[in-house]
Amino acid sequence: MIELSALLFFLAAGWFWLDSLRARDFALDGARRACEAEGVQLLDWTVAMKRIRLGRDDEGRRGFQRTYEFEFSDTGNNRIGGSITVLGRQLLTLNLPVIAAPPSNVIRLH
Q: Does the reported pTM lie above 0.85?
């Protein structure tokens, strides 16, 4: 009985790890697309998990709702934080702070 419990635990942990990798890749792709659409540069090409909790999708199924943070730059010499929240492969929220137009004396580095 202990062996079966240990096996089920390791299978669940493996599933959770693979699901987390898929969600992270989906969030990174969403952040990349949003930055391209806004004409800003995604920095470090990475997202970092900030929060995980249980949530429900549009059809009422439970899943893990994950919030990731990332950084981008509008001029090439600053870092601005953004976030993206996903539930499985569904984008829930995307936060790119409003960026004021750079002064005319600012030289864009990218």
A: no
